[in-house]
Amino acid sequence: MNAVVDAAALDLGWTWQNRFAALGEAFFTRTSPTPLPEPQWVGTQPALARELGLDVAWLAHPEALQAFSGNRALAGSAPVATVYSGHQFGVWAGQLGDGRAILLGEVDTPAGPMELQLKGAGLTRYSRMGDGRAVLRSSIREFLCSEAMHALGIPTTRALCVTGSPQPVIRETVETAAVVTRVAPSFIRFGHFEHFSANGQIGELRRLADFVIDRYYPACRDGDGNPYANLLEAVAARTAEMVAHWQAVGFCHGVMNTDNMSILGLTIDYGPFQFMDAFNPAHICNHSDSGGRYAYHRQPNIAYWNLFCLGQALLPLMDEQQQALDALEPYKTLFPAALTRRMGAKLGLVDVREGDAELIEALMQLMHKDAVDFSILFRRLCDAAGGHTEPVRDLFLQREAFDAWAARWRERLQSQPGFDDSVTAAAMRRVNPRIVLRNHLGQVAIERAQQGDFSEVDRLLKALMAPFDEREGEDDLAAFPPDWAQQIEISCSS
Ligand code: AMP
Ligand code: MG
After folding, report:
1. At the N or C end, where does the chain have fewer CB atoms within 10 A?
2. Contact (CB, 8 A) for 9 and 73
């Protein structure tokens, strides 16, 4: 299958499968990356290299720099840009596709088959009005956040490295180009299904759905239900878990369009995302989202709306509409259950009991009223479980209201069989991160990188790899955001 047999191509000893490309020409356009002039390393993730069975030393080598900038082919890869469509901000947007991402192919790794994609690798057939590039700023954010989410245990696409170039890229100002190497078992989105369904290409729709079921959801063929309805239900279950994870760390995605929803329930396409500082359920992280469609508290319902679009796209493969509606139904209970479980664990609760959802909600309301910092609150609550209550109490303006809540919480904790302060505090520290990728932390690393100093990208990556640990020299990363953090405006521009 048209794999690269260029004599100059680098052979990493990987076995390439390129199964997506085997789906056929209707699904993609063969596209090679556009060379990136004068590339340099911005960041690398050795931990992922190891997982992929890559020689970590090679990742620092000039050959790797050329390969992951799109300047040298990898032997066995068969690069393509895939076609998809989608709903953007609630409106059907028609054909989109990989406008700047190029799928190099799929390799067999010790972690299983993985697709490699270069984001920002130049024009494709689907670039529309865009230039096929990504700027350094957004590439650093995607690189760091992908790996940070993974370290938090949140399903996500991964990032192996970022390379940068002096090549100018025009956004609101003139910036420079960068390329992120993304890694995931699959980059298939809800929008891939919507594309073929909307175009009446039902044969292709079925082929895509069969491909996804056979490879990633084989259990959907068990029993005598409709396998495509089963697929919808399985995707909905994974999506519920993903969004519950997001809500529990105060993560706002920012652009939950259906083309940014992974069929594997992975967090994908890091744009104007944000880990919230002061808690506000209606927080909008995307400066372009004036209506607040993707505000923090709307994420669970938007995920459902997106699943509904996926269900609609899959309808031609079902016997009746009711199958899709039935498949979507469990989301309505799975999501709240997953959220209560996660939030309960953050409070040190080992199981979910009646009244827990209200206990959690009461805390969130107090946090909202006093605009308490999301991550610092939960981290200090770990200390409070161990009896050290003053620091968390000091976060509230209305300390008596907090005291009343804390008394309820302590009573609930003490009702757990064999309750032990320090064991509970330790368990809570394993689910309440000390360090998250706050906007201002990314901003500091970006501004240094724009001056040619990439050391903060690396320091931040290392800290984000151990988000639950108390480590020396990282207090600044765990601290309250500076006031200027409120002024940072992150839009769709990337
Ligand atoms: P996003 O909002 O980043 O998920 O992108 C939505 C669509 O626009 C996708 O089809 C992207 O590939 C495409 N796109 C975004 N930025 C660019 C760009 N600079 N050049 C070409 N296509 C782009
Ligand atoms: Mg996208």
Report:
1. N
2. yes
Does residue 96 have its Cβ closer than 6 Å to ligand 1? Answer: yes
Tell me the residues surrounding ligand 2 (ion) with CB < 5 Å: 260, 269
pLDDT of residue 13: 85
Tell me which residue has tokens 């170039």: 165
Beta bridge partners of 88: 91
Helix (H, G, I), strand (E, B) or coil at 306: helix
Return d(Cα 316, Cα 303) in angstroms, integer: 22
Helix (H) / strand (E) element for 159: namely strand 158-170
CA 17, 267, 84, 287 torsion-angle sign = negative
Contact between 152 and 249 under an 8 Å Cβ cutoff? The reply is yes
Question: Is any ligand 1 atom within 6 A of the Cβ of residue 269?
Answer: yes
**Digit-coded pLDDT (tens) for 304-358:** 999 999 999 999 999 999 999 999 999 999 999 999 999 999 999 999 999 999 9
Phi then psi for 338, rounded to 5 degrees?
A: -65, -40
Positions marked catalytic: 259
Q: What pLDDT was estimated at residue 312?
A: 98
Residue whose CA lies nearest to ligand 1 atom number 14: 99
Q: How many residues does the chain have?
A: 494
Residues 284, 294 contacting (CB under 8 angstroms): yes
List the domain boundaries for the chain. 15-187, 210-340, 353-494
- Residue 348 and residue 428 in contact, taking contact as beta carbons nearer than 8 Å: yes
Global pTM reads 0.97
DSSP of 333-386: HHHHHHHHHHHHHHTT-SS--TTHHHHHHHHHHHHHHTT-BHHHHHHHHHHHHT
Give the Cβ contact number of residue 365 at 10 Å: 14
As beta bridge partners, residue 44 has 161
Give the pLDDT of residue 8: 76
The upper half-sphere exposure of residue 348, i.e. CA atoms within 13 Å in the direction of its Cβ, equals: 30
Q: From the CB of 100, is ligand 1 less than 6 Å away?
A: yes
pLDDT tens string 41-55: 999 999 999 999 999
User: What is the distance in A from the centroid of ligand 1 to the CA of 141?
Assistant: 16
**Greatest C-alpha distance within the chain:** 73
- Tell the residue nearest (CA) to atom 6 of ligand 1: 96
How far is the first Cα of the chain from the last one, in angstroms, to the nearest whole number?
Answer: 34
Residues pairing with 174 in the sheet = 170
Question: pLDDT tens digit string along 248-305?
Answer: 999 999 999 999 999 999 999 999 999 999 999 999 999 999 999 999 999 999 999 9
Substitution candidate for ligand 1 out of 129, 259, 269, 288 with most atoms within 8 A of CB: 259
For residue 132, give the ligand 1 atom closest to its CA.
20
Residue 1 alpha carbon to ligand 2 centre in Å: 27
CA–CA gap between residue 494 and residue 485 (Å, rounded): 19
Does the C-beta of 260 come closer than 6 Å to ligand 1?
Answer: yes
